[in-house]
Predict the structure.
Amino acid sequence: MSPARILFFLKEPRPGAVKTRLAREVGDQAAADLYRAMAEDTLEVLHSLQVPVPITVCFAPASAREAVLSWLGPGLDYAAQAGQGLGARMLAAFEQAFAQGAGRAVLVGSDLPDLPAGHLALALDWLSTGPAPVFGPAPDGGYYLAGFTPQSLTPAAFADIPMSRPDTLARTLAALSAQGLQARLLPEHADLDTLEDLHRLRASPGARRLRAVLERLGR
């Protein structure tokens, strides 16, 4: 089975620089605290796979290496995000993973504290059985996960496709289809952008750090 890698995209949790939509509801500092907690919960999900997979923390900004390393600690690979725009940074992360020997890679963001580990395992399994790309649809029209092999990775999946739009995934799938690639889709799952999104986690068995911060904030 080809070597796998997880690409974990995150930002340094600085007030005013993360979760700006959420910050409009709770303030910059609270949004940063909540982001830090959800990123830690998401990382716990990534570590929970029955078969461990190496994780590369793809961080931004590039100047935050020491701060992110101090936050998340050793035992992970760290690489600064490179490129103009999220799509370009995602493409560069996949290209670097494959240049370093990975035969399949899955990219996830840092706002998935209740992501079922089974979704991640299924994506990695699908990538081991064929070259078809894999995506995890989000209810807002975007995606929470993207997976490729070296054979299926194409700049067309990211070029000229605006992120965080209601048609982001649809346009991505159309671009891949034009390249002769038919993607496989995981079950739908929502990331977290608003206080309403966070409230649905109160009954979740996961996201324990995030729930603790919500309780501390009285939210």
The CA atoms of residues 141 and 167 lie 5 Å apart.
